User: What shape does this take?
Amino acid sequence: SQVVWRADGGADAANPNPTSIQAYTSLAYAPDPTIPIRWNAFAGVTLQAPDQSRPFDRYGVKVNWQRIAPDYAQFLSDANVISGGTGAPYSRDKFVFEANAH
Assistant: This one.
């Protein structure tokens, strides 16, 4: 993660919790084909200490993408048939959007 903006421009070294925006990202790959989630990537931004009277408050947004293994997608389609569903092919790509506050 990296702070990409500070309200004070970095001038107030005495403030341990300045109002700032932090960006972060990650990418992971599982080379073992038996792992259900082969790829996982996410990126997000966090607004830290938006109100200096509450320096530990944080608000953020995050986007997460996952690609599941082909065998796991087939397993999910088969499980759907057994459960009375259509057994339609299961999409390997999944997106998750998150908004959070701490």
Summary: The longest helix spans residues 70-82.
